[in-house]
Design goal:
Length: 237
């Protein structure tokens, strides 16, 4: 694979909880505009940061176990894996995984965020791309990471992303879901909020997605704010 030829076509308190549990109102229509406005309006906190991807990317309780389990997974491949991080955000998590990859491709839809990341993070293995994972082609990779990204999208957009993921051997998905039994995949509009406000969460193997893989295995489950953050490895072939 010749990577040079690939071209790209919580603030504390009330605000944090709102970002977790409710959809946004009066945000622009397109996904790119929505995500850009989320960062601009500090919907995920970080009032004094240029870009901040929320406590899910900064809480030690969430981040440290994730980095430990994913780095261990990546080190299990003798020749290394090309990793593609969909929705890389402020890269507070991804930066810790670059050393364990053969190549690390970090993707986000927000142009200013990607430019900021390019200026802050540099490694021979690392490349950043500004892409819309719903509509744009994705670069070739061995392993896809989608960490607490799908939970912010509508069901229609999730389905569009899943169609793209079928061609990748390893897909590792992390979602924030209710504890115990719940009705999966409630519809929502795209925004900073997730489905917890509807007592729901994203489960790819249940309707309307019915994602089918060769194997699936839960890698990590963390209790967080009376809910669970679950990481699952799907192997497609």
């Amino acid at each position: 694979m010749e990577w040079s030829k690939f071209k790209n076509p919580f603030k504390k308190g009330k605000e944090v909880l709102g970002a977790m549990t409710s959809d946004d109102e009066n945000l622009p229509a397109s996904t790119k505009e929505v995500m850009t406005e989320i960062y601009k309006r500090k919907k995920w906190g970080g009032a004094h940061k240029d870009f901040y991807s929320g406590s899910g990317s900064h809480s030690r309780k969430v981040v440290f176990p994730y980095i430990k389990i994913i780095s261990s997974f990546l080190q299990g491949f003798e020749n290394g894996l090309v990793v593609c991080d969909l929705g890389c955000g402020d890269f507070n998590v991804g930066k810790k995984l670059v050393p364990y990859s053969k190549k690390f491709l970090a993707i986000d839809i927000v142009e200013g965020l990607i430019e900021r990341n390019k200026n802050l993070f540099s490694d021979d293995k690392l490349e950043f791309y500004c892409l819309n994972i719903i509509t744009d082609d994705l670069p070739d990779a061995d392993c896809i990471l989608v960490r607490q990204v799908l939970q912010h999208l509508s069901n229609k957009e999730i389905q569009a992303v899943l169609k793209k993921l079928e061609r990748f051997k390893h897909v590792i998905v992390t979602e924030h879901v209710p504890k115990g039994e719940f009705v999966a995949n409630a519809e929502k509009s795209t925004g900073a909020g997730i489905r917890l406000s509807k007592k729901s969460g994203v489960v790819l193997t249940k309707p309307p997605f019915n994602f089918i893989s060769l194997t699936s295995k839960e890698l990590l489950s963390i209790k967080y704010r009376e809910a669970m953050i679950v990481t699952t490895h799907y192997q497609n072939f």
